[in-house]
Design brief:
Layout lengths: L3 H118 L5 H15 L6 H18 L3 E10 L2 E10 L3 E6 L5 E5 L4 E4 L5 H11 L17
Antiparallel strand pairs: 1-2, 2-3, 3-4, 4-5
Helix pairs in contact: 1-2, 1-3, 2-3
């Protein structure tokens, strides 16, 4: 019996060691599982953290874009408001232009008539040229392919030409009835102050009398001065003093 007790005790110890070894293996296996699970959880956490960081960066970027778009939209709103104001001003101007155009056409017609009357009452120099200019203006007023601004510009040009006649000296050749015979003569125009003619043979001279609306003969003593004036007007002589008869205005 004494031999049996140690054997039983050894068996118990062996069984206990086996049980402890099995329990330890289970603990180790469980710990490995926990470690693996923890590693997987950490991996998930890292992924979530990276995702959150990316989304945070994306959020910041979107906020910057929103701020930029807010400023841009505010600027566009200002521009749009200005464009609306400009469109309203343009529409108002167009309405006013229509009114002005309706008013300016009668004005231009009166200006053409006034210019025609002025030329008819003026000293009769360059009669054909001035008559053609007025006829051209009348024809222009009836044309639909020329806008009002262009018509007005041409009309002002015609007025400017007439104004310039009053401060220039000019020599030109034309036909004139002298002593009942049509002859070619040289005309000397000194502004609107005097219109003098001299026959091409240099023997007859005369000047326009605005009171009688006719040419009156000039004495032979004026012929040399008239010839000199013609040469000055043609730039064949330098400007110089002239002694010529002048019909004083009443």
């Amino acid at each position: 019996m004494k031999g049996v007790k140690p054997l039983i005790l050894a068996s118990i110890v062996a069984m206990s060691a086996t049980v402890q070894a099995n329990d330890l293996d289970k603990v180790i296996d469980k710990s490995s599982e926990i470690n693996q699970s923890a590693a997987q959880s950490q991996t998930k956490i890292d992924k979530i953290a990276d995702s959150m960081q990316g989304r945070l960066q994306q959020f910041k970027t979107l906020n910057k874009e929103i701020d930029g778009l807010t400023v841009y939209n505010a600027q566009l709103s200002k521009q749009l408001n200005n464009q609306i104001s400009e469109m309203e001003a343009i529409n108002l101007s167009m309405d006013q232009v229509s009114i002005i155009e309706r008013q300016i056409t009668p004005l231009m017609l009166r200006m053409v008539t006034g210019l025609e009357q002025f030329v008819a009452l003026d000293v009769p120099f360059l009669k054909e040229e001035r008559a053609k200019r007025i006829a051209s203006l009348k024809d222009m007023m009836d044309r639909a392919d020329i806008n009002s601004s262009e018509k007005f510009r041409r009309l002002l040009e015609a007025y400017q030409v007439e104004v310039d006649y009053g401060r220039t000296i000019e020599a030109y050749t034309a036909l004139l009835s002298v002593e009942g015979q049509e002859r070619e003569v040289d005309f000397l125009r000194i502004g609107r102050l005097e219109l003098i003619y001299l026959t091409r043979d240099g023997k007859n001279a005369g000047s326009w009398d605005q009171n009688t609306k006719s040419f009156v003969a000039l004495p032979d003593s004026t012929i040399s001065q008239i010839s000199k004036g013609l040469r000055i007007a043609r730039k064949q002589l330098a400007p110089d003093m002239l002694t010529l008869p002048v019909h004083a205005a009443e």
